[in-house]
């Protein structure tokens, strides 16, 4: 929550016809005086833990995100496999072969319609997310416009009477946000026409946005198939680029060595200014039972917080979530209040791993070989994921690893009463929906064992 000490009606200054330069200067001055709030943790790592703004700066500043974007673009277009991250030919790809589902013999009445299962690969930075929205370039909008030519006559007439464009109607396994890439997104489309071939559907979509959107496969399936409700698991992959300076602690030190360095660094921070931090911050009350504190640390004190994290520590934190049915409401964002409590927020993580890898980039200098960038890769497989849940899990695990928190830190955050207890979402550029499974999950097909 962002509050302004004296800002009521200030937003109207810019829209008023009588706005003067003095009023504009006054408005900007008040906006600069915002009071930023962050969650007040009570553990021993509180003084070493980044607040929301520091997390955002660590995630975005001075990182080669463009190289991650370019890599995903090459994967989407089939130029390089995702397994090239690990430089291991024996690594199994997590993208399984398509298994077509047979219809169940019902060919009369309402079962007479033809349903197509479409697997799509698209580059997230080229679109404003999946869901169709007015005036935005979305994946759903492009796909449904492409499928408009296959709509049956009866539906086409209804659309014409309502002055609506001739578009198909798709159902998707899971909506992706703006900037999020997908390698095997599943959606379905049905029509009453019997003359539509699988190749016709594939060609129509591939012609819509070459180089940005590509069809992996199209198959005819039973009418009972639903991309979302029939799915048994989803697999996400996150690539977090490391700085050129190598600020992140690598795995060569070993877990014990890394933990010792982090704990020793945080002990010095706490002894150095932890008490001063506790005295100076103003307690601003509670929000939903969670304590909030002012973000008014001096710049010199912010600079003394950790600037590195251990990938092995991130892996230890995430492993605590595997195989458990937990409520991830504290790790969700932009969800309705009705979904913030109760069973709807419960998810089961079947598999989660974090490891270091190298990112192959385009060879721009002939004869010198392609430049490779170190990255941290996180693979998550679960029965369902809440909005922005994966990105918040990644950023929070990095924050807790840098602060030297206990291995069960993420589990403890499940009981928090305010979403400020978790870190802001990591950038969408690193997230990719790998595939959606309609059979039982097989751990042997994971990229990171």
Q: Can you lay out the helices and strands and say which pair or pack?
A:
Layout: E1 2-4, H1 21-32, E2 34-39, H2 52-60, H3 65-76, E3 114-122, H4 139-146, H5 153-161, E4 170-172, E5 181-191, H6 198-206, E6 213-221, E7 233-241, H7 255-280, E8 283-287, E9 290-294, H8 299-302, H9 311-319, E10 325-327, E11 346-360, E12 372-382, H10 389-403, H11 409-413, E13 431-437
Helix pairs in contact: 9-10
What would you note in describing this structure?
Keywords: Isomerase, tRNA processing. By secondary structure, the protein is α+β, with helices and mostly antiparallel strands. Among the domains are: 63-69 and 240-267 and 306-445, Pseudouridine synthase I, catalytic domain, C-terminal subdomain (Alpha-Beta Plaits, 2-Layer Sandwich); 102-224, 2-Layer Sandwich (Alpha-Beta Plaits). The chain is built from eleven helices and 13 strands. It has helices spanning 21-32, 52-60, 65-76, 139-146, 153-161, 198-206, 255-280, 299-302, 311-319, 389-403, 409-413; strands at residues 2-4, 34-39, 114-122, 170-172, 181-191, 213-221, 233-241, 283-287, 290-294, 325-327, 346-360, 372-382, 431-437. The strands form two sheets. Strands 3, 4, 5, 6, 7, 10, 11, 12 and 13 form a nine-stranded mixed β-sheet that branches. A four-stranded antiparallel β-sheet has the order 1-2-9-8. Helix 9 (311-319) crosses helix 10 (389-403). The longest helix is centred in the middle third of the chain and has 26 residues, at 255-280. The radius of gyration is 25 Å and the shape is elongated. The model is unreliable at 1-11, 13-18, 89-105, 250-302 and 363-368 (pLDDT under 50).
């Amino acid at each position: 929550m962002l509050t302004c000490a004296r800002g009521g009606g200030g937003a109207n200054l810019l829209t008023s016809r009588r706005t003067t330069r003095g009023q504009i200067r006054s408005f900007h001055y008040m906006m600069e005086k915002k009071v930023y709030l962050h969650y007040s943790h009570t553990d021993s790592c509180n003084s070493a833990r980044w607040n929301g703004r520091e997390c955002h700066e660590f995630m975005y500043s001075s990182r080669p995100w463009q190289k991650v974007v370019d890599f995903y673009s090459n994967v989407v277009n089939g130029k390089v496999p995702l397994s090239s991250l690990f430089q291991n030919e024996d690594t199994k790809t997590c993208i399984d072969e398509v298994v077509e589902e047979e219809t169940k013999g019902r060919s009369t009445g309402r079962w007479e319609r033809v349903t197509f299962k479409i697997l799509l690969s698209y580059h997230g930075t080229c679109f404003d997310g999946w869901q169709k929205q007015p005036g935005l370039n979305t994946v759903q909008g492009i796909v449904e416009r492409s499928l408009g030519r296959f709509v049956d006559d009866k539906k086409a007439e209804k659309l014409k009477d309502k002055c609506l464009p001739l578009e198909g109607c798709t159902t998707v396994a899971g909506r992706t946000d703006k900037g999020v890439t997908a390698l095997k997104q599943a959606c379905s489309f049905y029509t009453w026409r019997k003359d539509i071939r699988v190749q016709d559907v594939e060609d129509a979509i591939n012609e819509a946005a070459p180089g940005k959107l590509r069809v992996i496969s199209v198959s005819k399936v039973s009418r009972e198939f639903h991309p979302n409700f029939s799915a048994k698991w989803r697999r996400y992959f996150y690539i977090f680029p490391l700085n050129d300076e190598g600020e992140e602690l690598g795995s060569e030190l070993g877990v014990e060595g890394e933990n010792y360095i982090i704990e020793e660094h945080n002990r010095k921070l706490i002894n150095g200014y932890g008490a001063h931090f506790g005295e100076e911050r103003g307690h601003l009350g509670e929000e939903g039972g969670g304590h909030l504190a002012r973000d008014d640390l001096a710049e010199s004190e912010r600079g003394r917080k950790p600037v590195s994290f251990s990938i092995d520590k991130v892996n230890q934190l995430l492993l605590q979530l595997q195989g458990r049915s937990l409520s991830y409401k504290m790790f969700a964002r932009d969800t309705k209040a009705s979904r913030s409590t109760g069973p709807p927020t419960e998810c089961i993580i079947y598999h989660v791993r974090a490891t270091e890898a190298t990112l192959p980039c385009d060879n721009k200098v002939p004869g010198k070989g392609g430049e490779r960038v170190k990255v941290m890769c996180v693979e998550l497989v679960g029965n369902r994921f809440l909005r922005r849940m994966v990105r918040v899990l990644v950023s929070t695990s990095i924050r807790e690893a840098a602060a030297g928190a206990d291995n069960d830190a993420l589990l403890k955050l499940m009981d928090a009463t305010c979403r400020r207890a978790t870190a802001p979402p990591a950038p969408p550029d690193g997230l990719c929906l790998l595939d959606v499974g309609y059979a039982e999950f097989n751990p042997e097909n994971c990229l990171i064992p």
